[in-house]
């Protein structure tokens, strides 16, 4: 009988540990979503620089081109990839940071304010009229967090890392680090 009770306590201890770990993961995901929701306009900034519909078109005289009609380019849309990814590279292979992974939802975009239409998409299909934005290498330690953001349209790309600190239950943007463009 006593041996049976000891076995039950071991099982109970394992269940409690798993429950606590599950709660911690849930809290991290909720805090991560809060950061994205509060700072979506910071993370998806400078999209105008990718919009070719805003580029001025030079005028052409009729004697240069007989049947010239200016190209009409429709305004681009933003396609936010639905998953927070982890990308392995030389910098983070030896780093012991645990990166967060979760899927974005439409509710995460409620604070997005722009005249550009935004949609959550599953894949980058290389549509030349969609600016694809991906979030990756999202880390959170205590009240500090960082996330990398890559924006890509056609063959143009820009890569930044954003840093945040939590102050009074609000994630505050601190700085942006430029990683590259192409």
Automatic annotation (TrEMBL):
Highest taxon in the source lineage:
Bacteria
What protein name does the entry list? Answer: Uncharacterized protein
